[in-house]
Amino acid sequence: xxxxxxxxxxxxxxxxxxxxxxxxxxxxxxxxxxxxxxxxxxxxxxxxxxxxxxxxxxxxxxx
Length: 63
Known about the structure:
The chain has 63 residues and is α+β, with helices and mostly antiparallel strands. The chain has helices spanning 7-12, 37-44, 52-62; strands spanning 14-15, 21-24, 46-48. Helices cover 40% and strands 14% of the residues. The protein starts with 6 loop residues before the first helix and ends with a helix. Belongs to the bacterial ribosomal protein bL35 family.
């Protein structure tokens, strides 16, 4: 039987040309008024996924 791509994982993560996995930073939905601008700017950047979760997510996206 053919494997299906996990659509929720595919929408949340981006695979780069070199095979790295990127995700959005956490804590960006609400309650951000208290943060200084430098922290808010850092959260706009994409974050690299590493560790054991990398293999699980890649398997969900690619399969």
